Amino acid sequence: MYTVPKLEDYSAESLDRAANELRKALESEAHDVNTAAQFKEFRDRWWSRKSGIKAQINKVWLGNAPLDQKPKVGFWLNLLAMEIEEKLEETQGAVAVYESALTLAAKEDWTGVISRPLADRLDISLPGIQRPIGVKHPVLRVMDEIVAVFKAMGYSVGEGPEVETDYYNFESLNFPPNHPARDTQDTLFIAGQESKPARDRLLLRTHTSPVQIRTMEQQPPPVRIVIPGKVHRNDPLDATHSPVFHQVEGLAVDTNITFCDLKGTLDHAMKALFGSSVKTRFYPSFFPFTEPSADMQVSCIFCGGKGCRKCKFSGWIELLGCGMVDPNVFDFVKQNGYDSSKISGFAFGMGVERIAILKYEVEEIQLFYEGDVRFLEQFA
Amino acid sequence: MRILPTWLREFVKVAADDRQLAEDLTSAGIAVESVQEENGATIYEMDLTTNRVDAMNHYGVAREASAIYDVDLKPVEPKLPKPKVRRIAPPNISGPIGMTSLTEQMEAAAATLDTDAFPIVIEDAQGCARYTARIVRNVKIGPSPQPVASRLELLGSRPINNAADATNYALNELGHPTHAFDLDLLEGGTIIVRRAREGEVLKTLDGVDRKLSTGDLVIADEKKPVALAGVMGGFDSMITERTKNVLIESAWFDPATVRSMAKRHLMHTDASHRFERGADWGITPLACDRVAELILASAGDELHGGQIDTVARRAERASIALHRSEVNRILGIDFDEDEIQRILGRLGFGVTRNAEGDFRVQVPTWRLDVEREVDLLEELARIHGYNQFPNTLPAFTGAVVTLPDEPKNAKVRETMLALGYDEAISITFISEQEAKAFGGGEPLAIANPLSEEAGYLRTSLIPGLLDMVGYNLNRGNANVRLFEAGEVFEKLGDGSIEDERRHLGFVATGDAIAKSVHSLAQPHTFFHMKGDVEELLAAFEYQKLHFDDQTPPYFHPGRSARALMDGGTVACFGQLHPDVAAARKFRQEIYIAELMLDRLYRHSLCEPRYQRISKFPTVERDFSFIFDEALTFERIRSAVEELRLAELQQFVPAEIFRGEKVGPGKYSVLLHTEFQSNERTLRDDEVAQWSAQIVAKLESLGGVLRAQ
């Protein structure tokens, strides 16, 4: 049975030793307490105001401490007292559980392991209390995935304004004024621009490509950027069109970039996005700001290339446009180190909605912009 | 556009079947979108890129096939009978490439004048570089022969008569638009290509009277315009069953001129489509002869005179130097000399090799898209086959840089998601009415909006969010929490500068905590919204954050607040004004918030800082006070703050009562305080003294202490 010893000295080691002995005794006595009666006895022995061990340590240890040590010892005893109190509470809780189990055992003649009182049991099959968290928009979620793939390949993220000038959206991307290729863009123009020079007139960017020029104006080569962003076209919202959509653009410029690198980079990115078994193939295409230009297809991510409804039974899905940066584009940033006879580069751009539609089998693009929570919350 | 493989095969001998041919063409950039069978014939539906107008016809596609398979392309050589009258020599135009003077043209025309020949005068050499014509007499206008008619039908055009069909057939074969006039309806025995005069009117083939202006280029006889150059012929000179004599026009018109005319008159025809994109300057004589051959074969009986070929300016293509080193630098692989010669030669380029093993390449007149060395590289790459190039990854010497706002955007977004708001994207456009109601500055109008309701760029994210709330409520989704981070727009200064700023908007309605078997529902309130705003703002560094009631008029005046961080407005939030809600037919309370992220982002994100956790006990004291309703908690809080009690760790309102016991115009508040020191256990007398200070301070605000 533990009794409070006298302390020989008040060094830190001695205090630690004394405290550890006390804790050991407290632990072992608490362990033997099962019934309410035992607990009362235990509590009196440790906590009784006059003769309890708590009172004794105050009297014996603090009382005999040298005067200059008293504050330190007082503080230390406070902490020990808190430990004793915690242990008392804990033991009391355990006793309550034990007692009610005993009652139960008596009532039902149940002699199993004493662990949980049935009276306090919950129907754990009821649903939990949920604190719902919000859901990322499916389009932005897909956009994040694409950006992450290119970040991992050493691309920095670039950005630019949604209201652009004619210069950045068209002219510097080798769309000359009055060129038919401009017609394909269904551009929305800002009103009241007539007094400005044509290249300064504002419009809603029709693609994220203007950020290519903006980036090259800011930063000499080498460049590797990936540009996620919102773009606008003059298309009313319906099942297959939206005036608002998103693109991810990419640009790599250096002294050593070739058409083979363009193919290899996109092939690698598609495998990272859709799985290593995905194949890519490239077709000649036309974009004013790349030469040679290409459309890239991936083997159908649903049927693996055998042919299904989603790939219109072709085994392939068209996913993005790309090409080697046209020297005319470099000429617009020549003074910043982009001499097309010394450097080369590739660029690519993909529509995020298109990929999201494919991936999640969403029938109508307008679902992305209606904000219906029954739709959005499916993408948790 | 449609292509018939049987027609192609008249020009190239290809072993591959129709499906394989379609695939191989597609791989080389001559995209066959679909292969269909119709009346026993295979039809390719083509999807060609806008730069490849030269291949939007059978001969052009055949040329591509000849390059792909390295087989000969059969030349088109119209067989024409000897003209009835003496052959007229073509105008002898020598000298450098460029403009030919009007006098030279007139002289050339006069020299060839014949009773039956038509002098052709080009007054506008910029608009019309070349005009070739022929005359066929004593034709019998009637239906086209079966082979011609059925091919045109397969291509989707309706046969009209043998003369008109001949031009259409030649267009599909060679890609060059031509026109047939009723010769006898042309007055004055001459053709003049000139600018229209202000006020002239021309009835075009579609029966519409076109008011002309000086921007229009017309084909005219001596008296009047007879065709809108490169766009559409005139109604009054068209071929009819009564036509006896025909003049065939095969000309080259300037792309920009035709484009502006087509735009002005809102006409898009096969001819304008072709000329706008750049026709083949060199093919006009061949196309002219081919049409003549076709007309003679079905309708004509005499060819009169020779070819009248008037050249106002020459438009041959330049030659380009092609370096093998450049091929490797851009494409990444070496091409051997033979392959370069073979590919370019088959496509009609003139290739000469120089001593260094490099090339000089003469571009054919039909390839207006090829101007530079890099354009030749694309020709090599696409005929070689894009998929024949290996996939490689480039080495890179740069570093990855993070945008300054990227971590802030991420923090805001993850906080909104954690607070239970779903991310949404709304349409960027709002109506004029909304732009006025939901924005401070002057909105940016769109010149060509989708609709009147979408005439402006959004000045706030709130209207878009309210639209989405409406959408949900109308479908029975009563509990909605949405947020959107996006750009808002307005004009700055004198209106010439546009300003684009990032905002965060969020909206909540219905239950903050849903009803369940465990608890009752808890509806959204102003204080839920405020808590969410506080949570967002807490991520940023600031000295002082305070709230006032200065909010825009679309907020409920008594239930909304503005947050100022170090004196600058960063957010407005609260209940939507009941009138605005009623106008949108909302029958439940809507809470909205808008954060000006551009301003908030001037503050840096909080760096976590560790503070030692006190080992000493906390002392708690509660005070029950009665205050006037007018006295806000902010006044109470800042008064106590002024006391600068270092050990006062917590000061919060615990309970608020109103009612009879408290009296009208008053409220009772239970204030909970906690004192704690890092260095010592606090003494009773210290705490008593601080409590007295607090009581005195609050009494000075007019508070009455009820209990302590």
What is the element layout, followed by pairings?
The complex is a heterodimer of chains A (380) and B (708).
Chain A lengths: L11 H20 L4 H12 L5 H10 L7 H39 L29 H15 L3 E2 L5 E3 H4 L10 H4 L18 E3 L5 H9 L4 E10 L11 E11 L4 H16 L5 E8 L2 E10 L16 E10 L1 H5 L12 E8 H9 L6 H4 L2 H4 L4
Chain B lengths: L1 E2 L1 H4 L9 H10 L4 E7 L2 E6 L11 H12 L32 H10 L8 E3 L5 E10 L8 H9 L7 H13 L4 E4 L8 E5 L5 E3 L5 E3 L5 E4 L4 E4 L3 E2 L12 E8 L1 H10 L5 H7 L7 H15 L3 E10 L7 E4 L1 H8 L5 H10 L3 E4 L5 E4 L10 H12 L21 H13 L3 E2 L5 E2 L1 H6 L18 E2 L4 H13 L5 E13 L4 E13 L1 E3 L8 E2 L2 H12 L7 E4 L6 E11 L2 E9 L1 H6 L6 E7 H4 L18 E10 L4 H10 L5 E10 L8 E10 L8 H17 L3 E4 L1
Parallel strand pairs in B: 4-7, 18-21
Antiparallel strand pairs in B: 1-3, 2-3, 5-13, 5-14, 6-13, 7-10, 8-9, 10-11, 11-12, 15-17, 16-17, 19-20, 21-22, 22-28, 23-24, 25-26, 26-27, 27-28, 29-31, 29-32, 30-31
Structure notes:
In chain A, strands 1-4-5-9-8-7-6 form a 7-stranded mixed beta sheet, with helices on both faces. A two-stranded antiparallel sheet of chain A has the order 2-3. The longest helix of chain A is centred in the N-terminal third of the chain and has 39 residues. Chain A has 380 residues and is α+β, with helices and mostly antiparallel strands. Chain A is 40% helix and 17% strand. Chain B has 708 residues and is of the alpha+beta class. Helices cover 28% and strands 26% of the residues of chain B. Chain B has 20 helices and 32 strands. Chain B is elongated. About 3% of the residues of chain B have low confidence. The interface between A and B is large, with 85 and 95 residues.
